[in-house]
Amino acid sequence: MKKLIIIAHYGLNRKITETECRAVVDNCGYGETVFIEFEACSAKLDELYNLPFDNIALAQQRQFAQIVTPVLEAYPDAEIAYFGLAPIPVAFHFGYLLGNTRSVTIYQYHHVRNEWFAEALPPTQEYKFEIVPPILPLEIQRGKGVIVVRVATSFAIDQNSTYAVVENPANEFNIELRQPDVDSLHTQSNIIQVVDSFQSVLNAYANKLSDREQIHLFMACSAGLPFALGMRINPNIYPYIQTYQYARDQDPKYKEAILISRETNNQAVPTDEDRSVSGAIRNDWNNLLKTSVRPFILSITGRQGENWLHTLCENKEDYDKVCKYLKTPWSEVIDIGKTNLKDDNIDMETVDVQGGFEYIERTNTWQIDDGFLAGLKNRLEKKPLTDISQAARLFFFHESLHYANEGHRLTRETADGIGQFPKVIEDADYQADVWGLLTEYRYCQMFDTNRVEKGVKDFFCKAIDTAVETMWSFVDTGSDLEEVQIRSMNRFLNWYWQWVRIETLQGKGTLEEIVCILFDKPVIEFAGAPMTLLAHRTFYRLNTRKTSNFQLAAFYKNRVFRFAPNMISSIVDGFKQLNGEKIKEGLKSFHNNID
Predict the structure, then answer these.
(1) C-alpha distances in angstroms, 118 versus 25, 105, 191?
(2) Do 361 and 296 belong together in one domain?
(3) Which of 243, 429, 457, 548 is the most interior residue, by most CB within 10 Å?
């Protein structure tokens, strides 16, 4: 007997019950049926435009792995009955997660009769379902650029509205009906025809337009179709597909929603234990902000200071030694009292956050992801000289300078797509890192003196280790890296290079020596690995067998150095394995040859 998996996928402020689903499928001759209730979100129609789609997609991906994947594995031959009432981008993403290996029947909710159907009568007696064939390229077209695809079955899509968000697409394809209607997809055959037309566009992209970097997908259709379209997406062939949410009364009318990216497939799914651990860390960090960081900020900024560095010095003698290094741009940095950090708190309810964290300026609230917190704890536990409380402070100090109105002003709007400007974000990150490290040093002098007892060299080496392990947590998926974004590699190289310089200081080091090193931003680069460009971001491929071309170059003490140090392979292996100790070994060999 045939087996059936019923999936009730909803997120539009209406629950789909097992009873209503079974009432439709129980008379279809299946021997065994399994019901999966999947709530992706809960939103009203007038809320869709401003939904946190990135977080919804991450939560959906994790929930899919936890409750859908085990059922699929337990019933490998079962057919799927999909009942969907979810926002269009969410339904598309769900279809992408399911893939195209099952026989699927799509049930839709009739907007007049208020009942589920797989096959129904056309909207009117004289209605004729007909797709306008998309115009496909006949020859291969080279060059970068993006593709716009518009799928319109319920309503026509105004092209000018799409140009408002994607101005100059290299190619455009319209999959539209001659007579759009909200109930136009009244049979499985109609759905299949639209999906096949979409597939023809995907095939044209793969065969004729493979240089194109991204597909921008605009959909005006009933909930079942986006799910069916998403099932056709192979991340190895179509690595970046941007979906959009529409709102008639907004400007622009379309807003970026979920980005389908092959990179998200590698994200680890937090276990129940991870969730519990992360909840405890989130609570500890919130208490840290309130009981330690806030009093610290009020204390150091409550006295008169010439500048931010003055507020961080224990006494006038220390300041007199380091102030000579305070030249532009360091002299223009704000003190921590001009950030929002003293008023910030952590959202204890939001646990799935794309990108690891998000700062909500409106409420001075941090949303922090369970996966990031659990991954950070796991990494720090392997490094006994690091500490998760210090990691928290370094994280908050760094980001507070980014978000401050008088600081970097790196708000969500300006941060979106900032990876396209690697030199800009590298300098901003380095400044925030240095500012955070020096702020942490002053904090520990006041509130955690055990950390500074062994001297400044020991303190800053340990603090840099903690900071860099936090950086690794954002890319650690539990497996080796096959590629690394060049700007990320540069940030790691900068800090491991500074760690090596600090470690070579004589004795316990002095604050003056530390400031001298920190204010001297490294100019060091790796080259020799194959490069690839994905969605305006440049990556090094790390799984290459050709190692003879690997080199390092540095502009150090007003001289240019360029060669392959004896342990260059350790640097590459360190990035593959997310292992900072191996990177340090390679950089030490380079440093010893040029210092």
Answers:
(1) 10, 7, 10
(2) yes
(3) 243
If you search the block for the tokens 């007909």, which residue do you land on?
130
pLDDT digits (tens, 9 = 90+) for 219-228: 999 889 999 9
Residue ending a domain, choose from 248, 266, 284: 266
253 and 117 in a single domain? The answer is: yes
Examine residue 379 and state whether it is found in any structural domain, yes or no.
yes
118-168 per-position pLDDT tens digit: 999 898 989 999 999 999 999 999 998 999 999 999 999 999 999 999 999
**How high is the mean pLDDT of the chain?**
92
pLDDT tens for each residue of 81-96:
999 999 999 999 999 9
Give residue 419's pLDDT: 64
* H or E segment and range at residue 414: helix 412-415
Q: Which range of residues forms the domain containing residue 348?
A: 272-478
**C-beta of residue 154 within 8 angstroms of C-beta of residue 184:** yes
Q: In which band, very low, low, confident or very high, does the pLDDT at 536 lie, cut at 50, 70 and 90? A: low
The distance from CA 373 to its chain's CA centroid, rounded to whole angstroms, is: 15
**CA atoms lying within 13 Å on the CB side of residue 590:** 33
87 and 45 co-located in one domain: yes
**7 domain-assigned:** yes
CB 595 within 8 A of CB 497: no
User: Do 101 and 168 belong together in one domain?
Assistant: yes
Distance CA 234, CA 73 (A): 20
Query: The tokens 């208490």 sit on which residue?
Result: 287
- Assess contact for 492 and 575: CB atoms under 8 A: yes
Q: Which of 266, 284, 304 is the last residue of a domain?
A: 266
pTM score, two decimals? 0.85
Average pLDDT value for residue range 7-18: 93
Q: Is 565 helix (H, G, I), strand (E, B) or coil?
A: coil
Residue 201 forms part of a structural domain: yes
- The structural domain count of the chain equals 3
Specify the pLDDT at position 411. 72
Do 448 and 427 sit in the same domain of this protein?
Answer: yes
Q: Distance between CA atoms of 107 and 105, rounded to whole angstroms?
A: 6
Same domain, 405 and 524: no
When computed from its CA atoms, the radius of gyration of the chain, rounded to whole angstroms, is: 27
